[in-house]
Amino acid sequence: MIYFFLILLSTLLFTCNHASAHHGCEGLNGVGIAGPIITTPAYTLPKGTKFINTLSDYTNFNTFSNSELIQLDKRHEHIHDTSNLYIQSIGAGYGLTDNLTVSFRVPYMFRFGIKDVHDAHVGKRGNAIGVGDITLFAQYRFLKIEKKNLHAALLTGLKIPSGVKRTRGRDGGIFEADEQPGSGSWDPFVGIALSKKLRYFSLDTNGLYKFATNGSQGSNLGDIINYNFSISHRLINNGYLSFYKNKRKLAKNKDLSVDLIGEANGLWAQKPNTIFGFVDENHGGAIIYLSPGLRVTIDNKWIWTLSTGLPTIDALNGRQRAPNIRLVGGITRAF
Questions:
Q1: How far apart, in whole angstroms, are the C-alpha atoms of residue 25 and residue 12?
Q2: What is the mean pLDDT of each run of 10 residues along the chain (335 residues)?
Q3: HSE value, Cβ hemisphere, 13 Å, CA-based, for 227
Q4: Do β-strands 150-159 and 187-197 pair in parallel, antiparallel, or remain unpaired?
Q5: pTM score over 0.90
Q6: CATH number reported for the structural domain that contains residue 21 in this entry
Q7: Which of 95, 261, 292, 320 shows the smallest number of beta carbons within 10 Å?
Q8: Count of other CB atoms within 10 angstroms of residue 297
Q9: Which residues face 56 on adjacent strands?
Q10: What string of DSSP letters covers 44-86?
Q11: Which residues of 267-287 are buried (b: 16+ CB within 10 A; e: fewer)?
Q12: pLDDT at 19
């Protein structure tokens, strides 16, 4: 059982946190048992083990009305809106050693309901859809104190410019760089993760800094900081309610486990720059989600996860509106 626990805690995925309706995938995601869904834990895969995973990430945004967009345009404010962002991705990973895991993630982006305004006219430009940028990831565990159930790991990786960068709207014009599925930039990132297991709960936290470089259309979409914290509890372990000393039976299947998860997922995004040296004051900023989640594990091979992100604190730059809700769900197969 501990073998499977480590496999799924180390399923490292590239997913999305949002500081505005216009930023794409900018975070790391860890999927595991009695561990986080979005926070990256410090656990690594045992040597020679592997996983494959699919992840669905949906965000619904508050948007401006047409009249509000026109009024902002009259004040010479650069505004464009996105109603929904959906990302379907696949990933895989492998344990090179007991303390070093490597993985990758390939997203497919669906950005719906893009609107902008020029000369007091609102243009409904349609949807930007295509393959996003591939992310390569490595995690090295440099601290493992078994007596204290304490782990620490270094996180590092690279987002490569493999995504589509020339999608066009209904009017035939190319979408702006921050609306494209791919950024066109090589973006390295580095961070740290900590994990601590208590009697009934597991605690995980991580921080990650992504360095943005110049990409498509001469733009720099800005650096990103992710910071996450998770507390999780194994409610049902092998079909038994975990809090009972004499283990009350709840399911016939002894290989069924259910975990309850609570997370705080934060992000800060820098204001982007365009090819003309224009700093977009209406992008970037900070936002924190409170994200309750649930995990179901069957036969020590399959795991299903679902997390609901509720925007709680935001300090977004300029004229922006915080998202309504974010849903993240995944399926993992361990080998």
A1: 14
A2: 38 42 40 68 89 94 75 68 91 94 95 77 81 96 93 96 90 86 95 92 95 91 95 80 54 74 95 76 89 88 91 87 90 89
A3: 7
A4: antiparallel
A5: no
A6: 2.40.128.130
A7: 292
A8: 28
A9: 88, 329
A10: -PPTT-EEEEEEEEEEEE----HHHHHHHHHTT---EE-SEEE
A11: bbbbbbbbeeeeebebbbbbb
A12: 46
Residue 299 domain boundaries:
2-334
| Count of the separate structural domains present in the chain | 1
| Structure tokens that stand for 188 in this block | 């390295």
Q: How far apart are CA 150 and CA 195, in angstroms?
A: 6
Please state the length of the chain.
335
Determine the Cα–Cα distance for residues 166 and 160; give it in Å rounded to an integer: 16
Question: CA 103, CA 193: separation in Å to the nearest integer?
Answer: 16
CA distance 288 to 5: 28
The amino acid occupying position 11 is T
Residue 158's pLDDT is 96
Q: What was the pLDDT predicted at 240?
A: 63
What residues contact 245, with CB distance under 8 A and at least 6 apart?
none
Task: Decide: 10 and 43 in contact? Cβ < 8 Å.
Answer: yes
Q: b/e map of 160-196 (b: 16 or more CB within 10 Å)?
A: bbebbbebebeeeeebbbbbbbbbbbebebebbbbbb
Tokens 């949002």 belong to: 18
